[in-house]
Structures
1.
Amino acid sequence: MSIAKLLTKRTHQVPGKLKISEYFFEVPLNHANPPDGTLRLFARSIERFEKPVGVVKDEAKELPWLLYLQGGPGFPCKSPQNYGWTEKALNKGYQIMFLDQRGTGLSSTVTEQTLARHGGPMAQAMYLRHFRADSIAFILGGLAPIMVEQPDPVYQNLYYKVAERNRSYYAKYSEDIQRVKNIIHYLQTEKVRLPSGGTLSIARFRQLGINLGFHGGIDAVHEIILRLDSDLEYYGYFTRPTLAGFESTQGFDDNPLYALMHEAIYLQG
């Protein structure tokens, strides 16, 4: 595999006596065939900004690296100081590298416009083959199953987990049972346009449940259900701020790799 080429590095100090470096690298689009072209990757590193007294420069030891890759797939990293666990990792003596995986953030971002530069649908699909897990490294909070012949057992187990999370949600916010029924009834009779131009259908409304899989997701879903139902009760329709809040929970327009690549993690070979 070819080694990444460092293009630029800029270092700055930020509040909290922290030093952040911003890197741009050049890597092959296709590691198996480097002449196919290159991608530009972006990363940030963070470490303590300290000047130890009495330490000769040559004696200073480089801190061990901890590499962080944002999950999704398809989402970039935030600024290092904006992660709650950064301080803990620094306290344990690490310097941390936050890498925007290829196709995300500032790493040769994949969008509708950038994909169009590569030709028609087939050419775009061939290009996106180089954005799968075998072209990058992963540190995972969850691991895609590798001991199954097909995705059916995965989705069967997922179904039970989704049902469990729904029960937990309605156990905590039992008043939302009727609220959800009110919202569904309204969507059955009215066509609701979202601020971006899309439609809030019943199927799209149910996709709100994806948030139940996140930390704090039950409370986040309740907040949206509360606003939707409150609008119906007081105004008889959904207000723009409420619809914009709903839409923000499904913002994949800026992160199309999530929709394009997510299910592919279950493929074998």
2.
Amino acid sequence: MLSRPSLCWCAIILAAFFNTVHAQDSVFSGTFEILFCNAGTPNSDAAYLQALLCHVLKGLQKTITDVQLSTASIHGFTAFFKTNNDRAIVQNVFQTIISAPKLGLDETDPVFACTDPSQDLTAKLYADCLQ
């Protein structure tokens, strides 16, 4: 187990690393940041993720329009809800996803990162997430 000072140094080193990589391999899709995905390269994971996020956000806009119709909707809302009681909650969830609010104490942008499971750091972070 790492001591508290060691953890602080690890955090400082990781922050410096991410800032360096951030400048080199980073792109935004709306308010979502995409890291480590070969930004600026045609047919890269970054390009595919940018296109995917664009389609998802457009779909969510259509869903919000449908939710605003409540039970008068002829599409999805009436398939899941028979009353208007939850309309505001459902609409708020989808609008929160679209607005991509800042996360955490430092209020950072939501980030997507491409990872390689064969890398030790990625494997460790993944294992930590499963616990």
3.
Amino acid sequence: MEGVLNWQDDTKGIEAARKKSTAHTPDDIEATSPLPLSPLMDSNLQAARNRYKTCKPEPSGEPSEFQKKLWKNPYAQALATPVRSCTLTGVRLPSSFLLDFGLTPHPTTGKPWQLPKLLVDSNINDTRKTSNSSGHLEQGMPPSVEDDPGAESPSRKPVRTVAGSYIIAQRPAVKLLSNLKQKTYMQMIPQRWKQDGRFKAEEIVWRQDMDNFVLELMRRKTVKLLKYLSSQPAAYIVACEGYEDIQNKHQLGAVLWLGEPDNDQRSTSSEESPPPYAMMEYRSSGPIPLYNLPALLGLDYLHQLRDSGQSFNRALAVIKQKRNTTHTQLQLWELMGYMAHNVAAG
């Protein structure tokens, strides 16, 4: 009995404490201090969250003069490319100054070949076998690019890796990779490639002549762009009589030195040929690059340019500073950077 009475006393105490508490009924709360609105029902909060999920609207109105200058400036466009890290040196640079490498299967052996993205999206038409099938270095002629680098192979498409591998766009650096030992080369393979189940990392092949192979691809792309510009009616590339005639041209972005048409054999070693990264003062606009095409492209591609049109039949030509010429100017600058250490020798 005594326990029951104690329990009743405790119950009465709890009820008394509830009556004395400062808690309010729902009606009292609504009248005095309303509850905060749920985030699921807050339209302002939802709009703030979804603001970063919607596509950014296209810029309206006319672009400013500064924006127009940026669009026509190949060096500003190069610096605006995403920053990536070089696998060989660890240096972080805009991707325009790096070579992007991917993996693609050899059409005969099926082994993954590490090749520049200049070729990964191109047609693969060379099925000649290589003599050495072991190790990561092979000398043969694996996948090569067709005359139309934009065409894709209907029979075999390139392997799409999880992420690319970037190497600084300089010929000595690419040549150094060809001399690495198997163990050192394996350490430079991205971890994502090793975890990709479509191929084995130890079977990845690197061409011994990769520096020459990349040079050939860059030269071919440069010549294709120059031919395209010279074929346009807008006169993006104009031949000049001499250095004095250059000052009479308007809106120039770069100067092309082709050498005398009858002396192509001596153009690459002539004392008059421009050195690497040569610049020329142009009116009040400041210096513009002067490219030595015999050294950059080689005599075979130089002859192709001369035969393509009247724009390349003189010793000098100029490229206009237009938005449509930005990509070509950037490609010339990248080719110069790749060959800078041996451009005098062609």
4.
Amino acid sequence: MTTRTSVELQTVELQTLQLQPLGVESSPTNNSPSVSASARQGPALLVDASIDESPDNNATTALSKSRAVIVNTQLISLQLSTSFCNGIIVVGLPAIASTLNLEANLLLWPTSVFYLTAGSCLILAGSVADVVGTRPMMLAANILLVASALACGLARNGGEIIAFRGLQGVSSAMAVPASVSIISTSVEYGRPRNFGFACLGFSGPLGFLIGLVLGGVLVDSVGWRPAFYLAAASSFLLCAIGFWVLPQRSSVKTQTHN
């Protein structure tokens, strides 16, 4: 009797399951709600939000390939000229100290003051570039580099060359954030932009190397002052090119999301 009753109960349960609509789970009570539409759409909404918050790499206005090459060349050459002056100071320091009667306790200052002012003014220069724009900041850094390099060649004592080398550090601090901003906002995303950043980073060591080699040749042949005159002349040429080729304030296309 007990076996027959259990068989009948199983038969009733199977019939009940067959009568239920497909895709609806049975629940012991009618109060348990099914999965809501908003819960089912939760992952999709999260994915959409992540897409909206991701940066749009094509939002910036990229320059043409030919102009981008010229802009990169101008920015890289400016960094190279700055490092070239550092190489001149290192290799020509004995001759500079002898000519300007530089005291022994000040021998390291023509080299170290550049890095002191460059590091101290870097963040401030980046903030100013965000306000006034990268093009005016870059041109101002170029003009300051021309003036400081020429002044180093005309220095009459140790105090003057230390002060002018400090101004060169300020010009480097002004140029670095502006150069990075111009490449990141005006050069096409991908390989061209990566190549621009790579060349910008490589221009510092390369300029220092050229300054050591060419500066040593100039110091031994015509003196250390013409080496600075050469740096000033090349920086002036780059400044003239910058007035023509540097882009205006980068216009970034904004997108509104509902």
